């Protein structure tokens, strides 16, 4: 398990793990066997990754471990902890990610490495919008929803999930000072589909199904994906190629072939000094190729003609000793299972020194259009719809140059086809599989929807309102999402060629009751840490005791809070509020990290809108025993429909606004479970029912597939 670094509570979670949960495992026996104490991974920075020998079955079924298991599940749902194969944590660490880097994860599902990359982007919690972003891709439409589920836990405006074949992922364009340029990535993670023979210790199927044929069939795909990756890598950028296989056909053979055809444009980085403490073996330089029937071949010339479709020249080691020495294949990393009780793994770190030979442009193109060298490559790769790509939302500068660009496109089309530059699949085919996604619609600058929001929350003039988007073109906008400026640029300039599954974090939700108080949108907890720096009104500072009341009681009366909080609330209008806790350095025993919660202020009460697992997380950090609290919440959620109806009948007999709020939220809890903690308070039972129908409809795509796929999110890196 790995503690998420950008989490402002990382130190508290680590302290909680070591001082409470790990200590409880000391001298514990389960089924007659002594439980081994979890150990930190010596090579992972800051003691943030730990390993335990407890099997999943024991962890789930043993009553003595129920508290620990509940802690792991709850914190994982919050995004504060990730359960992950130890060796799978290595590739993101070797990418050396900085917050300004543009990152592509080519084969991202199920998403544990993607989560690491997002964490690295948000290394500085005080920067709500890092300049970098992660585009996470996977070829499997259903697995993309599992990827969304993983990414959503981290509440980042800098992640986009797309659905493409990694070997032909399209060139994207971005707008730079009014001109369109090709997007090159600073960092690329290329964790390709593999035979998975490195997972033999945990994956029993590998023993039954493994044959040498697996690697022979995958080699070509792995090489195509890696080639596509280095094509899209910026000069000076770093790409990590990894597999959970130990077969050289899938590893060194792919790297050697890539280095050979790059003609010096790529080099293997020496990472021997990185991750001290990690036991590793060097890459190998000699190997043979074997067929399913047991035939071995040392060179391509030995392969009979009838076998040359199964075995390809790129599968063999380089024979030229000088070339082989220059490749430095020993710089690859081989992680063997028995060295440190892990899975088997292969990692190679590539650095791009110059453009790939088949992507080099003529010097005259650079002279004519120094800022648009990428356009010709993109349009050539997409000759069928090249005019659409360039003329979509054209600026004045683009109109003036359109004729010149057309001439360049026509002259380069044939050449680029010969060079093998891959383009995206035709847009018509994209509609034949997968689920139909709602559109991503950015709010116009003069949208009347935003003005009351801006006024109600006194948003800072620097607030990037252009980055707000919705998922509907017609009718009422129910949710407002937010992306970073850089991802907005990518979305606007590539809508025709890219199949986007999900992006943005929810920052506001429509609330019918709010309209009478001046704003129809309440704050959403998912996006509060992103929004908070821009909000200057409706902020209430609360003490630690107030936070405990907010998190343990459903809809507490104002009289239960401290006198300071009551004074602050007294003159404030009803509606959505921000509840902020700042630690007191003079009270070291109290929680020493800030908390920001979304709340709702009524006539006589104050409540927090916080998801259940996040609620439990904050209480744990404050030292409150939540094991019973969870049981209590489950009992609340299991209230019968008759009780709900009875309470609804009471509201119509003249209960005040606060009681209506409480009862209607309880009804939503009864019908949609944990969604209640995210859902806005509605003004009537009819509206609640409509909302539930809307939730069912809008989550049909994502949730149903997430639930199927997420039964086993940590099954390793085998991608079929």
UniProtKB/TrEMBL annotation:
Binding positions (S-adenosyl-L-methionine): 107-113, 138, 165, 191
Gene3D superfamilies from the UniProt entry: Vaccinia Virus protein VP39
Localization in the cell: Nucleus; Secreted, Extracellular exosome
Signal peptide coordinates: none
Location, primary (coarse class): nucleus
Gene Ontology biological-process annotations: tRNA methylation
Gene Ontology CC terms: cytoplasm; extracellular region; nucleus
E.C. number(s) listed in UniProt: 2.1.1.203
Any GO MF annotation of the entry: tRNA (cytidine-5-)-methyltransferase activity
Domain SAM-dependent MTase RsmB/NOP-type residues, every copy: 1-353
UniProt-listed Pfam families: Methyltr_RsmB-F, Pre-PUA_NSUN2, PUA_NSUN2
Organism domain of life: Eukaryota
Catalysed reaction, written as an equation: cytidine(49) in tRNA + S-adenosyl-L-methionine = 5-methylcytidine(49) in tRNA + S-adenosyl-L-homocysteine + H(+); cytidine(48) in tRNA + S-adenosyl-L-methionine = 5-methylcytidine(48) in tRNA + S-adenosyl-L-homocysteine + H(+); cytidine(34) in tRNA precursor + S-adenosyl-L-methionine = 5-methylcytidine(34) in tRNA precursor + S-adenosyl-L-homocysteine + H(+); cytidine(50) in tRNA + S-adenosyl-L-methionine = 5-methylcytidine(50) in tRNA + S-adenosyl-L-homocysteine + H(+)
Ranges of Polar residues composition bias in the record: 379-389, 698-707
Spans annotated as Disordered: 358-425, 633-720
Bias-annotated ranges (Basic and acidic residues): 633-650, 657-670, 708-720
Family named by the database record: Belongs to the class I-like SAM-binding methyltransferase superfamily. RsmB/NOP family.
UniProt protein name: tRNA (cytosine(34)-C(5))-methyltransferase
